[in-house]
Specification:
With 321 residues, this protein is α/β, with parallel strands linked by helices. It has one domain: TIM Barrel. Helices cover 40% and strands 13% of the residues. It has 14 helices and eight strands. An eight-stranded parallel barrel has the order 1-2-3-4-5-6-7-8, surrounded by eight helices. Helix 3 links the parallel strand 2 and strand 3. Helix 2 crosses helix 3. The radius of gyration is 21 Å and the shape is globular. The chain starts with 13 loop residues before the first strand and ends with a helix. The mean pLDDT is 94. It binds coenzyme A (COA) and zinc ion (ZN). The site of zinc ion has 8 residues, from loops. Zinc ion (ZN) binds next to loops.
């Protein structure tokens, strides 16, 4: 080895776990509050940068997360982990501040139709309402803005990159800490992700930039790879691959956290995650939600988890060629 050759630094990737918000909001049966608290506590020990614990939305709109206050009040907060919550409006922001969330994740869609379906208002009204939230919070807690349908809308189709960038620009101008561009219904493909990642880093170099993928069409891991190879260092994922959006027809699971982390880990990225510990938690998911989940590595094991060879292999080895 050439001692003069610079050692390539290991690239750090920061994961935000969204299973208890994006995942549980979409489950057919209410997940018991005790199970939610226990899961967040277990995830807090795995090395995540951030956990999106719940949402402070209308309990009529998202009944599965109607226990948001209780969950936030009972979780044990691990040092170094940020506990974030999704907030759709001022009422939600007040509840989130009361619960001592580390970050408020505001949400609106860059598709007019999806915004009307999900948040019951046109985009301009959402922008005005979220601007009011940002003024109200006044720097007391960091704010992230998640822009839904950033890569396409299931009802409108194509969302031009320029349109996404214009909405992102408005929030950057309001002084938010970070932006998450969401592929809410799994419409992004890797070439589009690379273009988006480059444009985001060019326009918003001072902001925390996160990408949020769904595996609806099997492109989730390919999109994660395109994102990190284009310089993105923050990703959302959902344990077991749970997730969806109640107002997006055809939406299904987020990219599976443990599968994405396993892939990046194998490639030499530093995810900060204790993978065996995470897989042990992931293996509890079917029991928690009462059905099978899409994640694959929890079923197959890591690529380094080898299997004993069948007995006859040893006998065959001893035979002359
Ligand atoms: N927390 C608790 N209750 C809330 C609330 C909040 N953040 N925002 C509104 N409400 C209540 C109101 O008090 C009202 O209750 P009432 O019927 O008992 O009087 C009811 O919800 C309707 O309020 P309104 O202001 O008319 O809101 P809306 O019906 O237009 O709904 C949203 C707007 C955004 C609050 C609602 O659609 C929502 O929470 N959507 C969830 C979006 C989401 O999380 N999607 C998935 C993630 S992308
Ligand atoms: Zn999502």
């Amino acid at each position: 080895m050439n001692p003069m050759r610079p050692v390539t630094p290991v690239k750090r990737i920061y994961f935000n776990e969204v299973a208890t918000r994006d995942g549980f909001q979409n489950e057919p049966c209410f997940i018991a509050t005790d199970d939610k608290v226990a899961l967040v506590d277990a995830l807090g020990e795995c090395g995540y940068a951030k956990i999106e614990v719940t949402s402070f939305t209308s309990p009529k709109a998202i009944p599965m997360l109607r226990d948001a206050e209780e969950v936030m009040g009972r979780i044990h907060r691990a040092p170094g982990v940020e506990y974030s919550v999704l907030v759709p409006n001022l009422r939600g922001a007040e509840r989130a501040l009361e619960s001592r969330a580390d970050e408020l994740n505001l949400v609106m869609s860059v598709s007019e139709t999806h915004n009307l379906a999900n948040l019951r208002m046109p985009r301009d009204k959402s922008l005005a309402a979220l601007s009011e939230v940002i003024r109200h919070v006044d720097g007391a807690t960091p704010i992230n803005v998640s822009l839904s349908c950033g890569f396409g809308c299931p009802m409108e189709g194509d969302v031009p990159q320029g349109e996404l960038l214009r909405w992102a620009e408005r929030f950057a101008g309001l002084g938010v800490r970070g932006l998450t561009i969401c592929d809410t219904t799994g419409m992004a493909h890797p070439a589009q992700v690379s273009r988006m990642a480059e444009a985001l880093q060019q326009h918003f170099s001072g902001l925390q930039l996160t990408l949020h993928f769904h595996n609806t069409r099997g492109m989730g891991l390919a999109n994660v790879l395109a994102a990190v190879q284009s310089g993105i260092t923050r990703l959302d994922g959902s344990l077991g691959g749970l997730g969806g959006c109640p107002y997006a027809p055809g939406a299904s699971g987020n990219v599976t956290s443990e599968d994405a982390i396993h892939m990046l880990d194998a490639m030499g990225y530093d995810t900060g995650i204790n993978l065996p510990q995470l897989l042990a938690v992931a293996r509890l998911m079917p029991q928690i939600v009462g059905h099978d989940v899409p994640g694959q590595v929890a079923k197959a094991g890591r690529i380094t988890d080898l299997h004993p060879a069948p007995d006859f292999v040893a006998a065959l080895r001893g035979q002359p060629a």
